[in-house]
Amino acid sequence: MERLTSSAKLMIVSDLDHTMVDHHDPENISLLRFNALWESSYRRDSLLVFSTGRSPTLYKQLRKEKPMLTPDITIMSVGTEITYGNLMVPDGGWEEVLNQKWDRKIVQEETSKFPELSLQSETEQRPHKVSFNVDKSKAQDVTKKLSELLTNRGLDVKIIYSGGMDLDILPQGAGKGQALAYLLNKFKAEGKLPNNTLVCGDSGNDAELFCIPDVYGVMVSNAQEELLLWHAENAKDNPKVIHATERCASGIIQAIGHFGLGPNTSPRDEADLLGSKMENLSPGGEVVRFYLLHEKWRRGEIENSESYITTLEAVCQPPGIFVHPSGVEQSFRECISALKGNHGDQQGKRYRVWVDQVFPTKIGSDTWLVKFQKWEMHVENLT
Ligand code: GLC
Ligand code: MG
Fold it and tell me: Cα(375) to centroid of ligand 1, in Å?
């Protein structure tokens, strides 16, 4: 990544469904906790990599549904597609590697002989990935027979079973683990190998991630049986891999603490958002805290008192300026007075605020310019 001029302090490579994203929590608490931690303490000098089984179509859909951050690198379709940055520029070199001993026509021909396999939606069929649903009880048998048939036809494939229902067929050189190995090699060639790498997953297609040498790993508490079984058989003596006791993104935060990879207290868990000590102040962290306070204020979770506003005004000294993308400038004082009238107006609603891509730059001896995106989620009429 050109953004970083030296090695990343930490590179997190995380699966999305049921790892970064908890589909059983409509409040998205663990994800929002992770987001605040990442933006306040890691965004500037670390790398966030999402590694998902989803195709670009379903990945983009998930980003619309959930309060997700923008990753530096996106690995999709079970490690068969790698893209960089906001604009998701594809890694053409990787696609070429995957063409070896791969012919999706032959895969389609052979798989059509199995009535147990039902094809997934069109969006999930990709140049180097053919995907089906299959019943748990039939998965092992089908995998064995298919792999023989495809080998006999001269292909070298990898068959992965995930989530107790999905069966993916990929070129042998593909997969989440191989995609990560490819990235690490690239970083190494540039002399920018991350200081630490933490991989995070919950299901079968994540197993490979835990085999990459020298990486730390976390299986979140809610990991699937197939991953836990794989771990028991293949990696149980590796002290660098843990099974978290917390679900999804909270399990990731737990692993950061367990392995001592850096700060592991999310600003969302701080009792007093105005309590940052001067010596701990970071420009990015203050932006994260300001919008958290904004959220709590509008949700009515902070008491509406003159003394609170006075303290808030006091911590915003010396005065700063907020520049809206439209060019309109507002002093912090004006921003705070605007808040006064909104106290509790989102009470009982699913209202959340989070910031993404918080990038501070020092522009004077004691002046910082912080660029960021602020997002809000509103859900009316909770029942
Ligand atoms: C995602 C993909 C699906 C794949 C599964 C497991 O759900 O959309 O195609 O089979 O991950 O890798
Ligand atoms: Mg998953």
Answer: 28
